[in-house]
Amino acid sequence: MLVPKEGEKIQIHSYKHNGFIHRIWEETTVLKGSQSLVIGANDRTLVTESDGRTWITREPAICYFHGSQWFNIIGMLRHDGVYYYCNLSSPFAYDTEALKYIDYDLDIKVYPDMTYVLLDEDEYEKHRKLMNYPDVIDTILRRNVDALTQWIHQRKGPFAPDFIDTWYERYLTYRG
Fold first, then answer.
1. Catalytic residue of the set 23, 53, 143, 155
2. Per-domain residue ranges for the chain?
3. Which CATH class is domain 9-175?
4. Which pTM value belongs to this model?
């Protein structure tokens, strides 16, 4: 398996279950890369939506992708603390083009005080029917919503107290 190298700048491609591109992040700096884990960072990076619209991220973000968990976690550094946006998704794959995953609509937003809310359940149900998500995918995703909320409660992985700050400091060394 190809592994992104530390310091390398890569794209991130998010797809939908039907194979169509959902969103592209133009540039993310790899801070740690292995077959089972990629940690990256970006700041003010260009994002292209499936319909061609573009926007630029507003703040530095640390991105956490796992090779066996069905979610990824983005920690956004804002003036009033770290906000997390967690996508229920397939585990990542990486090739010479980009880090890739399938976005399964469900999201969890976590606030700096570690309260959280499950988002987009209506979008998930709509796409589940439209794209014929298999029952096994539904089971996996529901199980991973539970796993992700346990990580939040336990302050595990990216939710650990110094995780985002530590990786952001590493990111700054690449920015010069």
1. 23
2. 9-175
3. mainly beta
4. 0.96
